[in-house]
């Protein structure tokens, strides 16, 4: 089984999710509708809904709550993207103008808040307090993770734990929730739900580390922006952390981060040094270690097609190059 | 405990809830609209014991503050790192507050209230988009009506859902009045929130004059409506007394 095969098999369900997303985002106000639907049409991997739909196969995947959960998770992700583009001052996302670029920051606020509220309204029909406690904690932590990222900008001396906590909040928890909700909304036991939660968590940690590696080694075409964008914005990710603490690049990185106006050449030189050091390889090793933990958990789940599909997704995350 | 003492306690707990060590080093403390807090508390207190009413008030106030935080978003290009950080945290702290209302209400097992707030936030954002990007030109009265919808989007929805639809018009008029007064004061300082930017007025003086007139007219109408109402419900009487107490101090 390949990843494309999994997407193909889930095509019908993913289409239902897509239709539901389109339906909830079509509202009377034309501006809000257009801004939200443009974002939806820009596409994306839909990895979170895919995980929810797959994990629901351990229970009864036909339950309405399954699609609602998948839609809710994608809405939360979309809302965070709209606001992230204001935070990062990004004009393009997936090659298309961002909401803030097409209209302005205020419209981006309205749109993100609107989509987020839609997500909450949708999930409020679920009659399970544990589910609500879990979702609301993840959403709160997600926003705390984003605040941490700003707080820790340009802190070249931050420790590994700080970085890991940040990516846990920023990415891993939502993936963990995607898997857990798939299980719970389809009527699985909380034991299976918990195992899937941790599988999603490890997957998410690996996913974000890979993203942070790709930011250094990806081409401008693949990334849609110059390589090393995170570092240029003061964001210390894992490759930079290792370059500072293991490969003697502390002074050169510190110098460029503390410089008020570093030149393109200075940035390019530091980014080349990080690439050439063993920092990328070390980061890949840590990403892989998380992935292996996730894969190990799969051994504790019923062995069959679904578990195999989750293994394929884990393998894809370990080898993805975009 | 008197109503005002109970409210002091809610306000204190709300401040603790909103506290974020790092955010408060960069952004000013969020404003707490004491009038809104009082009215929410009155609404919840009709059917709930003191503690639950206080907790629900706190949660919906957090949601209000999340929206108000995003209200302060600016649009011009910024290159200064500190100003950029302020903008970034304006987005993120607003998101944090929006997440917090769901988080706290889920812990109080009140998912019904979560739903009402979520629906009201959607309406609020739809009204905002309609106001800032109108498809037709708004005249003065239409603009006033739109602002009224925005200002009481959340509190009006909660009052309605709790079964107190009869007080919604008074609440809406009261918060409209508050906004008009705030807009007039800002205009006097030549500051703008954008609410009246779509109006084709020649200068700020003209806007201040129009707002002055509107404030007087709205105050008179609200006082009269409160006085003439035959409603004798406990909530209405409490609300009437509260608004009557605030009105002379406001305008």
UniProtKB/TrEMBL annotation, chain A:
Alphabetized PANTHER family for the sequence: ALL TRANS-POLYPRENYL-DIPHOSPHATE SYNTHASE PDSS1 (PTHR12001:SF69), GERANYLGERANYL PYROPHOSPHATE SYNTHASE (PTHR12001)
Keywords noted in UniProt: Magnesium, Metal-binding, Transferase
Family annotation (Pfam families): polyprenyl_synt
UniProt family annotation: Belongs to the FPP/GGPP synthase family.
Class of this enzyme: transferase
Keyword Metal-binding in record: yes
The protein, known as: Heptaprenyl diphosphate synthase component II
EC number: 2.5.1.30
Molecular function via GO: heptaprenyl diphosphate synthase activity; metal ion binding
Entry keyword Metal-binding: yes
Top-level division of the source organism's lineage: Bacteria
Gene Ontology biological process terms in this record: isoprenoid biosynthetic process
InterPro entries with a match to the protein in the record: Isoprenoid_synthase_dom_sf, Polyprenyl_synt, Polyprenyl_synt_CS
CC cofactor: Mg(2+)
TrEMBL record, chain B:
Gene3D superfamilies linked: 1.20.120.1450
Pfam families from the UniProt entry: HEPPP_synt_1
GO BP terms: menaquinone biosynthetic process
InterPro entries named among the record's database cross-references: HEPPP_synth_su1
Record's protein name: Heptaprenyl diphosphate synthase
């Amino acid at each position: 089984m390949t990843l494309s095969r999994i997407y193909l098999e889930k095509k019908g369900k993913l289409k239902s999710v897509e239709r539901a997303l389109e339906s909830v985002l079509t509202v009377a106000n034309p501006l809000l509708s257009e801004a939200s639907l443009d974002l939806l049409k820009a596409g994306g991997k839909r990895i979170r809904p895919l995980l929810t739909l797959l994990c629901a196969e351990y229970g009864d995947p036909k339950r309405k709550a399954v699609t609602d959960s998948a839609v809710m998770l994608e809405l939360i992700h979309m809302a965070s993207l709209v606001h992230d583009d204001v935070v990062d001052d990004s004009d393009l996302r997936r090659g298309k103008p961002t909401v803030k670029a097409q209209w302005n920051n205020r419209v981006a606020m309205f749109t993100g808040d609107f989509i987020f509220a839609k997500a909450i309204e949708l999930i409020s029909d679920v009659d399970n307090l544990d589910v609500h406690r879990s979702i609301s904690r993840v959403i709160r932590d997600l926003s705390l993770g984003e605040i941490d990222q700003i707080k820790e900008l340009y802190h070249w001396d931050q420790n590994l734990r700080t970085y890991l906590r940040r990516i846990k909040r920023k990415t891993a928890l939502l993936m963990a929730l995607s898997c857990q909700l798939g299980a719970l909304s389809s009527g699985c036991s909380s034991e299976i739900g918990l195992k899937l939660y941790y599988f999603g968590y490890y997957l998410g940690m690996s996913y974000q580390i890979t993203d942070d590696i790709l930011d250094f080694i990806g081409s401008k075409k693949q990334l849609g922006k110059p390589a090393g964008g995170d570092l240029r914005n003061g964001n210390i990710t894992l490759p930079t952390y290792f370059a500072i603490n293991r490969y003697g690049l502390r002074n050169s990185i510190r110098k460029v981060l503390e410089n008020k106006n570093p030149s393109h050449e200075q940035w390019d030189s530091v980014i080349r040094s990080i690439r050439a050091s063993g920092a990328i390889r070390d980061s890949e090793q840590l990403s892989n270690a998380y992935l292996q933990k996730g894969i190990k958990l799969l051994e504790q789940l019923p062995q069959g097609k679904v578990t195999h599909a989750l293994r394929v997704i884990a393998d894809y995350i370990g080898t993805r190059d975009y | 405990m008197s109503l005002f003492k109970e409210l002091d306690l809610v306000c204190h707990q709300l401040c603790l809830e909103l506290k974020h060590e790092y955010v408060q080093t960069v952004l000013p403390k969020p404003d707490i609209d004491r009038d809104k807090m009082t009215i929410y508390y009155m609404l919840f207190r009709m059917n709930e014991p003191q503690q639950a009413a206080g907790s629900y008030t706190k949660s919906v106030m957090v949601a209000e503050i999340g929206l108000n935080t995003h209200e302060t978003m600016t649009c011009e290009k910024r290159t200064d790192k500190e100003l950029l950080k302020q903008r970034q945290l304006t987005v993120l702290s607003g998101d944090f507050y929006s997440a917090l209302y769901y988080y706290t209400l889920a812990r109080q097992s009140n998912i019904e209230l979560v739903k009402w707030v979520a629906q009201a936030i959607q309406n609020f954002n739809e009204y905002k988009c309609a106001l800032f990007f109108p498809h037709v030109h708004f005249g003065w009265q239409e603009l006033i009506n739109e602002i009224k919808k925005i200002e009481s989007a959340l509190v009006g929805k909660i009052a309605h859902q709790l079964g107190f639809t009869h007080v919604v018009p008074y609440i809406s008029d009261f918060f409209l009045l508050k906004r008009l007064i705030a807009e007039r004061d800002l205009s006097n300082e030549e500051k703008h929130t954008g609410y009246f930017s779509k109006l084709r007025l020649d200068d700020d003086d003209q806007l201040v004059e129009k707002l002055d007139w509107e404030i007087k007219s709205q105050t008179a109408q609200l006082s009269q409506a409160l006085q003439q109402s035959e409603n004798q419900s406990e909530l209405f009487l409490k609300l009437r007394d509260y608004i009557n107490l605030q009105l002379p101090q406001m305008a």
